[in-house]
Amino acid sequence: MIKKFSINDITDEIHHPYLTKYYRILLITTVLSIVLFSLLDNAPSIHESYGSLFYNLSTYLYIILFIDYLLRVIGSIKHLDMENNDEFIHYNSLFSYLFSYFGLIDFIATIPFYMFLFNINNTDLLTIISISTLLKIARFSPALLVLKDVIVSERKSLLAAFYLMMILTFSISTMLYFVERDANPEGFPTLLNSIWWAIVTLATVGYGDVVPITALGKLLGAIASISGLGMFALPAGILASGFAQEMKRLRNITNWNMVSSVPIFSNLEFGVIADITKLLHIKRFSKNELIIKEGSKGNAMYFIVEGSVLVHKKGLKVTLKKGEFFGEIALLKNIPRTANVTSKSKCELLELTTYDFQNFIRTKDDILKKIEKVARTRYEEY
Fold first, then answer.
1. Architecture category of domain 156-234 in CATH
2. pTM of the entire predicted model
């Protein structure tokens, strides 16, 4: 049966990864071109020579962003029923997309299209929106999405740090205002001027446009400078710690999914699989490097984290990609390797050695029985 094509096949990498890859390249190229044209057109000399060209090219580029928005709107309404190979309408997901962060960003990116369509000339608004289109490609960066999740999860800690920064800023600026206002009326004429000085000093920017002249004022300035080193580093520390924890959590989930996909581990409990993931070691290989040699002793299995490998077995060549595994028979039987495995590109693999695995299950008879039961039916040819 021929699979019915869906709008989501363009934007969803699950069903058509290569189609989605090229579509992403088109969007990223479009957004970067819009930003570049906007920056160049802002220079009077360049605008005079190439302004009309940039305008015409940007028109076509914004048409692409408008089509992208339409595809995502239609895709949020129509969902493919994989069993019946048919589409069904789901309006709740439409509203979820329209009022989501990326839904609003996608809509804002289409505003210049309407401006061109109705001949609305507002250069400043067009420039602002052109730069803001950079936010569209944030959805293609896992690191930025993780950072967004970290900010949301650490919002209470960040708000507490911001509150402490406000207290320190207002406290020092108020004290300095009363100390300096008579001796230095030009530098600290109002409390707002003192707040400006406190922010610049605590942030360790040190513009030097306003400086205290009294001894007590200089002492307060020194305290503010030293305090700023730690106070403004506090949010950065919170984000760094949260980012590291989130990346570790995602890595553990990825490792768990890869281990659980191995048939001999699929029937094990969640906690047991989690314990096995702790035995994994990172191995990196360069392009065309031999990972496993046919006839050698099997002492480990591997999970592919990044890259791809080529398996040579009796004239048969098979390519394994990210998320797949190989060499698991080495964990069960002491037999020579039956194939050569080489890296097709730079690879990052997770290695589970036979030694670590055997030590892990040595005293766990119940786990060993489950693994042997699956192994007898799946690997009996060995």
1. Orthogonal Bundle (1.10)
2. 0.65
